[in-house]
Amino acid sequence: MILQHLSQLYPLLRAAVSLQLRRNLGLTAVAFNKAKELDPVQKLFVEKLREYTTKSKSAGGVVDAGPEYQRNVNDELTKLQRLYGGGDLTKFPDFKFVGFASSSSASRLSSVELQRLRNDLFTREKARQQSLTPRIEKIEVKLVGKTHPGTLFVMNKGLSTPYSCARHLSEWHSKNSILALVNGEVWDMHCLLTQSCEIQFLTFKDEDPEEVNKAYWRSCAMLMGQVLESAFKEEFSVELLQSPEVPVLSGAFCYDVVLDSHLDSWNPSKASRTDENLRALTRAVHSLLHQDLPFEPLEVQPKVALEMFQHSKCKQAQVEEKAAHSPQGTVRVYRCGDFVDLSDGPHIPRTGFCSQFEITAAHSLGPGPWGQVRRFQGLSLPRQLQVRHWTDEDRRGTVDNLDSYHNQSIVFLSLQPQIRMP
């Protein structure tokens, strides 16, 4: 790559960056020099272009920007290609990457990079929202229900959560409350309280644990998706599609994914009755359970969610759909450790509430527009409801009937492989 070639590409690069900023940040117009609106990788590339522009203007034409700049040009173009769609820039007229590997593994972000990107955006947005509360205001939260009715908590608006109230009530409530009813509406234990309200705590042992059970199933599916995204070797890729809401009584929770075409013949469910690949995935989930990680909810604007999931066409379609059906026009995301995913929630408070957990099967749902869709399934029991044993037949007996819970409205996505197992 020579600087003369870069100078010819400069207008195209400028247009490409501007286009992507408008798309991902939801802006109607973007000034190219607003580096404060860019993430670290974008800033790095913009600074390189500024450096070249300054030197070329001073010299009145193409210049030798120096060996250090020359060595970094390909690296910066590689990062740009990764950031903006894994090679879409090559579709611009007369635009080619010189000396750049054309393999898909070189042009896409790894699962670790994707998780870091989403995690950083989650942290930044959470901090931004917290900064909008300039001073602490007090609210009154009244406990209703069978236990200690009428207890009044004086809490901090926009800072306190149902979990904060449970801790004030008793250690038992803080360790056993799974969800809260806030003015009769089901809430996460870590969702911020924004006004005075009535509150009631829900546990696994309530007379009607339906909402708690659904939250548990939903959280287990998210944990399975978290492991699936990062379990594969770097030469493969996994695209998370969605976690379908299947009835708890169906016997398993699910997550739909698309694996690289090189893994089309991989069928862990039929490999053996005790498939080692599924066991490896299960062990990875158990490491998350032992860390007792919180499920953190965050309500964000669609443009923030689109930026988080800019590398997933499927997730972007879900963002737009969820925002369209939301009364506030917002989208909810959850973070568990470094993993961020779309979900309407609610979820259980922490991974430590899960005990017996096993990923039991992976079934093919057939080809989609971009690849073969797999449905991974699992079983789990909460810590408070442990049993001594479950047999191989127990855990596999109900998993073969869930293929019918296939949401035909899924927007499928293309992928490439990545498993630290096969």
From TrEMBL:
Q: Which InterPro entries match?
A: ATP_synth_f6_mt (IPR008387), ATP_synth_f6_sf_mt (IPR036204), Beta-grasp_dom_sf (IPR012675), Pro-tRNA_synthetase (IPR050062), TGS (IPR004095), TGS-like (IPR012676), Thr/Ala-tRNA-synth_IIc_edit (IPR018163), tRNA_SAD (IPR012947)
| MF term (GO), any | proton transmembrane transporter activity
Name a Pfam family for this protein.
tRNA_SAD
What UniProt keywords apply to this chain's record, in alphabetical order? CF(0), Hydrogen ion transport, Ion transport, Membrane, Mitochondrion, Mitochondrion inner membrane, Ribonucleoprotein, Ribosomal protein, Transport
Pinpoint the TGS domain residues.
137-203
Q: Which compartment or compartments is the protein found in?
A: Mitochondrion inner membrane
Q: Name one GO biological process term.
A: proton motive force-driven ATP synthesis
Q: Quote a single Gene Ontology cellular component term.
A: ribonucleoprotein complex
Assembly and binders: Component of the ATP synthase complex composed at least of ATP5F1A/subunit alpha, ATP5F1B/subunit beta, ATP5MC1/subunit c (homooctomer), MT-ATP6/subunit a, MT-ATP8/subunit 8, ATP5ME/subunit e, ATP5MF/subunit f, ATP5MG/subunit g, ATP5MK/subunit k, ATP5MJ/subunit j, ATP5F1C/subunit gamma, ATP5F1D/subunit delta, ATP5F1E/subunit epsilon, ATP5PF/subunit F6, ATP5PB/subunit b, ATP5PD/subunit d, ATP5PO/subunit OSCP.
What does the similarity note say?
Belongs to the mitochondrion-specific ribosomal protein mL39 family.
Q: Which purpose does this protein serve, as stated in its record? A: Subunit F6, of the mitochondrial membrane ATP synthase complex (F(1)F(0) ATP synthase or Complex V) that produces ATP from ADP in the presence of a proton gradient across the membrane which is generated by electron transport complexes of the respiratory chain. ATP synthase complex consist of a soluble F(1) head domain - the catalytic core - and a membrane F(1) domain - the membrane proton channel. These two domains are linked by a central stalk rotating inside the F(1) region and a stationary peripheral stalk.
State what protein this is by name: ATP synthase peripheral stalk subunit F6, mitochondrial
